[in-house]
Write a structure and sequence with these properties.
Structural class: alpha+beta
Number of strands: 9
Order of helices and strands: HHEEHEEEEHEEE
Distance between the termini: 10 Å
CATH architecture of the largest domain: Beta Barrel
Strand order of the largest sheet: 1-3-4-5-6-7-8-9
Strand content: 35-45%
Largest sheet: 8 strands, antiparallel, barrel
Number of helices: 4
CATH topology of the largest domain: Lipocalin
Number of domains: 2
Length: 139
């Protein structure tokens, strides 16, 4: 879906929320962020752990986040299911791929989002014993 169309959908949803029920700022923010995450597929543009760059291992994957808290990793004709939970006030996202390979296991953590737009997310694990960097971009 073109970027402009995504913005239109989010704005109309936001205006509808305000007019129909007087949504709180928190509810509105949560709806906008959830819509941005769940609308379209994402790819890993960069993934580093410590000084090792694992980006190439993620190259064949695309990720689709769903409103119900599920995430699907697509690789060629195969899919792997996981879960995700966003905590908007703390700017964190928990992700878990329970039955998976070593590549997707690298995503199993709670991630602190420190930079984001409607098409980019940059995050580090909240676990201070783990040094990693994740950059997702909307496909």
């Amino acid at each position: 879906m073109p970027y402009f169309k995504q913005i239109q959908i989010i704005l109309f949803a936001s205006i509808g929320c305000i007019w129909s029920s007087g949504c709180s700022k928190s509810t509105l923010e949560t709806n906008i962020i959830t819509d941005a995450i769940t609308n379209g597929r994402w790819i890993v543009e960069q993934f580093k752990e410590g000084s090792i760059d694992y980006t190439s291992q993620f190259t064949p994957y695309e990720f689709q986040f769903e409103n119900a808290g599920t995430v699907t990793a697509y690789k060629n004709n195969n899919t792997t299911s996981g879960i995700w939970i966003a905590d908007i006030p703390t700017r964190t996202i928990f992700s878990q791929f329970p039955l998976t390979n070593d590549t997707l296991k690298k995503l199993n953590d709670t991630w602190k989002v420190y930079n984001n737009t409607l098409t980019i997310v940059e995050a580090n694990p909240t676990n201070t014993n783990r040094s990693a960097y994740l950059k997702l971009i909307k496909k």
